[in-house]
Amino acid sequence: MYMSQYRDLFVSESRSHLEAFNGLIVRFENNSAPNIVHELFRHVHSLKGMAATMQFDRIAELAHKLEDLLSTIRDGGISSSQGLIDILLAGSDQLDSMITAIEKGDDIPLPGTDDLISRITGFSPDKHAVPEPENVAAQPGPPLRQYQFRQSDSFKTVRVRTETLDRMVNITGELITTHHRLADQLRNLPGAGLNEPLAQLSSQLRELRDEVFLARMLPFSVVAERLPRLVRDLSRSLGKEVALSINGGEIELDRGILEGITEPLMHILRNAVDHGMELPHMRTAAGKTRSGLITLSLARDKDHVTIVVSDDGRGMDPALLVAKAVDKGLISAGQATVMSPWEAFMLICNPGFSTADTVTGVSGRGVGMDAVKNAVRSLGGSLFIESGIGRGSSFHLKLPLTVSIIQALLVECEALTMAFPVNAVDRTLELTPSDIFEEAGQQCCTLDGNTLPLGNLHRILGQPLPASVRNHIPVIVCRIAGKAVGLIADSIVGQREIFVKPLDKPMSHLKHITGGAIMGNGSIVFIMDINTFSSLP
Amino acid sequence: MMNPTVMIVDDALFMRKIMRGILEENGYQVVAEAASGIETMRRLHDHAPDIIILDIILPDANGLDLLKSIFSVSPLSKVAICSSIGQEPIIQKALDLGAKAFILKPFTPEKIVTTLASLEG
Description:
The complex is a heterodimer.
Chain A: H1 7-30, H2 34-53, H3 57-76, H4 82-104, H5 114-121, H6 125-128, H7 133-137, H8 162-186, H9 195-215, E1 217-219, H10 221-224, H11 227-237, E2 242-247, E3 252-254, H12 255-276, H13 280-285, E4 292-301, E5 304-311, H14 318-327, H15 333-337, H16 341-346, H17 369-378, E6 382-388, E7 392-400, E8 405-413, E9 416-421, E10 425-431, E11 437-439, E12 442-447, E13 450-456, H18 457-460, E14 473-480, E15 483-488, E16 491-499, E17 513-518, E18 524-528
Parallel strand pairs in A: 2-4, 9-18, 13-15
Antiparallel strand pairs in A: 1-3, 4-5, 5-7, 6-7, 8-9, 8-16, 10-14, 11-12, 12-13, 14-15, 17-18
Chain B: E1 5-9, H1 13-25, E2 29-34, H2 37-47, E3 51-54, H3 63-73, E4 78-83, H4 88-96, E5 101-104, H5 109-119
Parallel strand pairs in B: 1-2, 1-3, 3-4, 4-5
Helix pairs in contact in B: 2-3
């Protein structure tokens, strides 16, 4: 049958309608404006038409019933009520699961819809909720439909499969690698008159790279649509009142970054509702509004984006966090005394550190803050936490705009050349043997008046330690578990723009290695992820 | 004689692709697609197609309200309304406003072909 070729398109377009539908339901909960009802109607109407064309009759039927309900709401001026919202959400969930069944293959029977359909057809506003008195008094007549032309750029755009974009990034990355190889070769051929065209090639490649990355950018709002629903459902299930406000949804990020950041953000939001927010009566007692507020703000700053999730909940007490970490043996009593509040807040990102006294069904499962931190770091970003007791907490995520091409420090260690992402390195040092001393069995040096513990990159990489004493010892200063450490290497080659290629099996299992890159001379370097270390090796 | 040119107006990409498939298989030349009222008006200036297949519910406009504007730019185009709203008063209103045919969604390829054939000549 010729229709089967349209199934993928049906699934993806239905999903966009449902996501928009969900976002609108949450808005409708607080605002019964006719244009919101009309938009809800339009999305479910489109879905109905598409499903009917594909002969997915049960989807079409359910969408049709929702459409009827929405047109009753629109024409009767019925206001939003809990019962109504619940039915719309149940309808949306049911449609979603049916579309998922279709996505998985035709053989899976569509889930039943009969119960829900009778709930929808049996819905009456009087039975489910008493309207607020002022709504009864101000029964609006049938809303005036005002259709206005909006400016639209949609015909200037085309849809491109994401694989095509990924391939373009790949090819661009390889072009950059080839360029480096060419440049390396030409260094041996002085006077060949190729410097100018090579410089031109270099700047054109940079332009191409920027354009290709631009094509992969998506506005944050693509993932933001489902977040209000998450916060709403969760706070209701916990008996809390929490609103989510999103600023900067129009800011664009690389698709890969967006994909990587969605789950961590959802976790931070779940945490904020579950652990951060107080119950309404506790908030009132503390002189706060009954309803808590979570703000998610995006801002673009040169080549990175910051995402800040702030809540006005109970906040965290650094002293309590430190005490708990000592209790759990995560840090020593000595370390505890010199811990800054900033370091103390980061303790919640330690694996196994839970701030909730009881593990709830909400945040006690799935990824913890350690996974959030790792996800942010593996995207080349960083995480910073602020909190004030009684004032709430803020999670600051700083993320690069793009993934695959990064600035890296090339470091030699015996036969190996390793790449350290520049944003993971604080600075580099060159020590002489007399700078190094031992303290409690640990090699150290002094940096800015503080003691800096030193580790050996050779040991990390399983390379033999340098046999002879060297006069100049290069050190990379980076952070392991939030603390500055120095890693001793053989030499620091320099900074390079590298194109990161993910590793396939079995290399993908290598601990501490996030990817590889091909150098100008054709050799392969591995990219080290210092953040995967929990202590100085 | 040239193949008749068609413009498809529907906010669902899915519907436009299916419609295009059916039309191209049957010798029509799809010269434009539009997903909204404003896009329809912009594309009309460039194409003035023989036939316009027009959905009613669009993100920024009602297809019926759009009819008058369409004819002001492309008076010779023949419009077939294509919608899942099949109530008699709406069909009548569309015909009163100058539409030549009404295709009810969901449609079959045969229905499209016979409807468009009736528009020619």
